[in-house]
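User: Quick sanity check before I run a bigger batch. Here is a single chain. Can you write out its predicted 3D structure?
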Amino acid sequence: MLLVARSIATVFGVGFFPVASGTAGSLVALPMLPWLASLRDAAPAAYAAGLAAGLAIAVWAAGRAAAGWGIKDDGRIVVDEVVGMVAAGSMLPATWTSAWLAFALFRIFDVWKPYPIRRLEYLPGGIGVVADDLLAGVYAGVVARVLLNLV
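Assistant: Done. Predicted structure follows.
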């Protein structure tokens, strides 16, 4: 099971990208955002169920991989970036402009970690690995939504 967890946690090897693995993980989610927004609009219950299942899998995989490597939030774990991007995109329309805006803002919030994002890193196991990126995604989604409403 550790191999499965590591495969999911690294998003099937993307986490081994030699530089900026978090950005690489975020880019994996980028092309999914317009499709997911369309799914949200067409089938909200299926969308919500998929998000819940994806979040649970990400927490499990991140926790198992981190424990296996002996490093709490190993840079190879990028499934948390995917979760953060999906969280950002969940508030936005199904457009490429929205997806790119979500990407840019998510990377800013993920690196900056304004309050209380950084504190979430101290939660135990996979929850701590994923929760900070999830909240960074929420921040990015809210700010993107405000910016899109202004133009």
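The helical segments are 2-9, 21-29, 32-42, 44-69, 79-89, 96-112, 117-120, 125-150.

User: Great, the batch can go ahead then.
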